[in-house]
Amino acid sequence: MQTPETNLILIVDDTPTNLEVLSEALTDAGFEVAVATSGESAIEQIEYDPPDLILLDIMMPGIDGFETCYRLKQNPQTKDIPVIFMTALSDTVDKVKGLSLGAVDYITKPFQQAEVLARVQIHVNLRNLNLALAEKNLRLEQEITERAIAEAALQQLTQDLEQRVLERTQKLADALCTLEKAQVQMVQSEKLATLGQLVAGIAHEINNPVNFIHANLYYVSRYTQNLLELLKLYQNQLPNATPEIQAKAEDIDLQYLLEDLPKILSSMEIGTKRICEIIKSLRSFSRHDEAEVKVVDVHEGIESTLMILKRHLEAKPGQPKIQVFKEYGNLPKVECYPGKMNQVFMNVLSNAIDALTEAMDNYPSYVPSPMIRITTEVRESDRIVIKIADNGLGIPENIQKRIFDPFFTTKPAGKGTGLGMSISHQIITELHYGSLQCISQPGKGAEFIVEIPICDCEQCDFVRSAKKGAIATAMCK
Ligand SMILES: Nc1ncnc2c1ncn2[C@@H]1O[C@H](COP(=O)(O)OP(=O)(O)OP(=O)(O)O)[C@@H](O)[C@H]1O
Ligand SMILES: [Mg+2]
């Protein structure tokens, strides 16, 4: 705070005597003093050397004290300088007017020196205090502003950090998801690879001997036929056989043998033919490791999968067999990964069998005739649709949303891994640019709808748009 000695008091009065008396008294009291003899000169002076207090006479030539005060209060640079009016003792109206114009006080003429000094001193002190306060306020405001800036910066930093943490977390979650998917795929692929290898191994081992038998059966039946004809010739040419021959013929029941032998041979032929078909199916199923896209008959894949699952479709004690109805459309050959497609058929059909078996175990009267219906058709000439429906218990709505989630299963521990549907979904959507949908009304069974493009080439509009996430209907030329 400034000391009283350094405070500058401006006395504005047109009466030299007043100026003199007041100047002397104030100078003696330690103030610095400036004087002005008119309102105009005072305003000019204040602008280049602002005082700490103004003693302002009212009655002056030119602009009077009130006007001077008014102008000073209008100017932002001078409005805070305290003004003390000097007025005659009786002038109450002037005192009120002066105060209402913004003056802080008034002193009455003739001057009482002690009173003037006391009032000046008080207002100078007040002024100094105000200035100090204003300065402090300013500093405080600055500090507040600086703090606000710092806080804003900190907030921004925190936000940036939070954003980065969020982004990293998202990246980690994505990585984890990818890893999980890869793991899931590995587990299923391995499962299927093992099954495929086993199937392929068995098929290979059985194939040669069965082919050998099947091929030779033709000769066996031809030779047998020849022998039988020869025997008949003997019987005709030599009707009186020796007793020894007759005994042997009776012993081996020649008549029955002659009738039965061709039947046995033909059923053997049917049997080996069936084995050959089974081997063909097994081989078709075990194409799982074919990594390339092939042009294949999808029906063959479905058939071979049904063949593998045949045992599970058969009737069991107290339970009827699961009937399979096929409504195969006239499908063209399709470009796909045959092994992977078989994997999908395997998963969907196994689930249908599981659902029907569960229903038969727990609610036998509910499914008196368990069945699976397989429908295939061409859609809009560029895609094929395979629908596999069962009449099991269906899938509750809250579960439907989750069946394609990896590891989601409703089956008891050790029975289901919960991978089948998520893998199948991936195979159909990501590998074949198709779609796999599940429609189910609880209590009314479930239907899985596979839709894939017929052609998988880069030029095909359907595949191209599917790769971009859209469904197109254009066809590959
Ligand atoms: N046809 C269906 N009827 C009723 N529920 C089904 C059917 N298909 C799938 N689900 C439900 O979807 C779940 C997930 O099927 P998903 O094939 O992924 O796994 P899972 O069959 O349980 O196990 P696994 O990995 O051995 O196949 C099943 O547990 C079952 O609840
Ligand atoms: Mg399953």
Automatic annotation (TrEMBL):
SMART domains: HATPase_c, REC. InterPro entries: CheY-like_superfamily (IPR011006), HATPase_C_sf (IPR036890), HATPase_dom (IPR003594), His_kinase_dom (IPR005467), HisK_dim/P_dom (IPR003661), HisK_dim/P_sf (IPR036097), Sig_transdc_His_kin-like_C (IPR004358), Sig_transdc_resp-reg_receiver (IPR001789). It catalyses: ATP + protein L-histidine = ADP + protein N-phospho-L-histidine. PROSITE patterns: HIS_KIN, RESPONSE_REGULATORY. GO terms for molecular function: DNA binding; phosphorelay sensor kinase activity. Residues 201-456 form the Histidine kinase domain. Transmembrane segments: none annotated. The modification 4-aspartylphosphate is found at residue 57. Pfam families: HATPase_c (PF02518), Response_reg (PF00072). Keywords: Coiled coil, DNA-binding, Kinase, Phosphoprotein, Transcription, Transcription regulation, Transferase, Two-component regulatory system. Residues 8-124 form the Response regulatory domain. It comes from the Bacteria. Residues 126-160 form a coiled coil. Its EC number is 2.7.13.3. The lineage of its organism: Bacteria, Bacillati, Cyanobacteriota, Cyanophyceae, Nostocales. It comes from Nostoc sphaeroides CCNUC1. This is histidine kinase.
